[in-house]
Amino acid sequence: MNCQQTTRLLSDALERELSIKERTSLKVHTMMCSGCRNFGKQMGTLRGLTHEFAKGGLSSESPASSDSDLEK
Fold it and tell me: Is residue 36 within 8 Å of 44, Cβ to Cβ?
């Protein structure tokens, strides 16, 4: 499995249940590839943040999204 296939499966895993073969291949690749492992963590973080925002738990005016921070 290459990195492109892995990132696709990581994305797919957010939408559907992966097969045993897919989960195994994904686990083996991410054990060896720190880039894909980090991508998976970032995907999980983004998903959690968007779910929290959708529930109203995060403000659109959070300090991280202010115009002054974007200009730095």
Answer: no
